[in-house]
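Internal QA ticket QA-208
Title: Verify multi-chain structure generation after dependency bump
Assignee: T.L.

Test input:
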Amino acid sequence: MNDVKKRLIGCFHTVFPDVPESAIPQLSQATAAGWDSVSAITLLNVIEDEFGVEMDLDQVAELNSFDRIYTYLEQQLQAA
Amino acid sequence: MTITEALQVAQRADAAGPKFQVKLACGFTPLHLQTFLIAHLQQRLPGRKVVATTGLYGDLAGTIENVATGSGDLPDCLAVVLEWSDLDQRLGFRSSGAWSTAALSDILSSARTMLARIADAVSRVPAGVRMAFTLPSLPLPPMFHTSGWQVSEEELILRRDLLAMASQLAHGMRAVIVNTQRLAERSPAGKRFDLKSDLLTGLPYTLPHADEVAAALALALLPPAPKKGIISDLDDTLWSGIVGEVGPDGVSWDLATHHQLHGLYQNTLASLSENGVLVGIASKNDAAVVQKAFKRPDLLISTDRIFPFEVHWDAKSGSVSRILNTWNIAADSVIFVDDSPMELAEVAAAHPGIECICFPKADYAAGLEMLRRLRDLCGKERISKEDTIRLDSIRRSAEFQQQTAGDGAPEEFLRQLDARISFDFDCGSDSRTLELINKTNQFNLNGIRLTEADWQKRLAQPGAFVAGLSYEDKFGMLGTISIIQGRQQENVLYVSTWVMSCRAFARRIEHRCLEVLFERYQTNRMEFDFAATAKNGPVQDFLTAILGVRPDPPVGIARPQFQAMCPPLYHMVRELEENRK
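Actual output:
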């Protein structure tokens, strides 16, 4: 597992402390009970804190799974 | 604090700890503001689990009204985050209401109505709920007819009405109003508003601003206990110059000599002393020279506001010990101010917990920071009668100690004290009552600190009683010096809280207190919610004297046991009845 993925799992764990870390890579808004609009925004802010990148609030609806957020984050980090 | 840190602070809290409930009243989506508020309160309440609830979006006044009417669980405290859009939606950016000049008078009128509604709701919030307000901290929309560099009459009227309501709330300490100027220093005006977040999520605050607002509210809701005393050096601190070298007339503290910073320091000490903060002097000097200097009429702090003076050539840590002993307070309640880092280090090493401040002399910015810090550390929400008599009372206590030095308090001396104790059984709602409980360390049954809500819950228990003791003798008035609270169940008095000011020690007031309670409630036994703390030696000693062994919970005293161990008491007692007010 690469470093970005590990750190992203840490971000998810901060926002969803009840989800086991091993289950986080499969997490999505459809499967996570606590993933509502508030936690979605909180998650983006926590990722901003961790990686120092700006997460676009306009994208919050599309960024609805670990995979999608990871892909978006990789793009942001490459562009930075 | 970052949002990640805030989440982690909240998650680390002991979920099984007693809950501390905060109601957050704000008209916008609280989002991270709520997270930050929980985190900042949690940091101030490590043993408890902070839980925050919010009201309906867009209905700040309704949220306060719900607390006022007691619908739902009564929170421990209420945090109100007021913004312009709470006064009229058109004053926010999410409204499509017209910004026409014609609408302005209607906006002002509806804002005034809303301010009155909020003030009314606040006045009805139960006394046990502590409240803190932040006033609008975001920019008004560019809706007024003037250019942005000019303030319009309408905006000034709006601000005037807001401040009128805020001063009404601050009156009588109904609510704590966060200082907008201090907030502006920590969160610059241009870095507070996030329009994108406001429009997309409903949270108008930037994350740093949400953090600062939450921190300010937490401080207002759970302020630290104020320091009780300041011990100050003289040379290059209270005044500029070395008095032993330049003489009493050579030291200065005024504008003409460019030493006004020392004058401002004197003024600060004088003002704090007037508010009940004790001021003592620890100086390595010739006492006779210092005495002459204190006769100068232009000194800005009167000599009689300072007690005691420790002026000699011995170590300052020893001077501090003697001053603390005279004041009968612990080092962690005191500030030591000196211009010498070496003296500060010597005192800090000997008195762990003492707050040491280096007088900055020629550094004006640091000087201003020091004056503000002194006020921050010693500031009081209200000045009580006890604050105004404290210094006199300490002097009298010192005289008392001198006369009783040696073998405790001789019977003849106690008999001639002309001591009078008033028991007030209706003091539950006096602000001094909870204040005394939360700042007393030595004669404190268990060291438990109580919020206003905790206190109200205790008073509401079946069989609850509370008594506040005021003391006076020929040495002067000590004011309210003891609080005892508990409940009566059948033939037993359960004492949950018992504190007594250290100024009142050695007068057998604690014995009289129990004697009066046994008699008044006609009980045969008292059970004490005792817990040993690092500081409550005096209460442990008292219980040991009655029990014959060191107290070990559960601690109970039977009436015959108390009567057998109670020494002769000479006070005159007056009982003020419940509901007399």
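Spot checks passed. Residues 3-79 of chain A form a domain with the Non-ribosomal Peptide Synthetase Peptidyl Carrier Protein; Chain A fold (CATH 1.10.1200.10).
Status: verified.
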